[in-house]
Design goal:
Shape: globular
CATH topology: Arc Repressor Mutant, subunit A
Helix content: 40-55%
Largest sheet: 3 strands, antiparallel
Number of helices: 3
Strand content: 5-15%
CATH class: Mainly Alpha
Radius of gyration: 12 Å
Order of helices and strands: HEHHEE
Strand order of the largest sheet: 1-3-2
Length: about 70
Amino acid sequence: MILPSKFTPFKDSVICKMLNIVERTHNTIGVLELYSDLEDEFSNIDEYIYSLDVLYALGYINVNLSKGVIEYAN
C-alpha cells in the first residue's frame, strides 16, 4: 500500500519504505542494481516502483531512462 491507513501500518507503507532508497548515498546507481540491493526491504517490485515515483515527484531523484540509472538530485 502507498499510504498508511487503519489497515496498513506506517512501517508497511511505501512512504516508509522509500526511506530505504533515500538512505543510499550513491550519486548514480542503476535501477536494477538498487532493486537487487534493497529487494529484501520491499514485498514486491510494485512497492519499489511506487517508491521511485514518489521520490521523483518530490524532486529527490531523477531517472535517466536512456542509461537506466537513478541520479540523486542536489
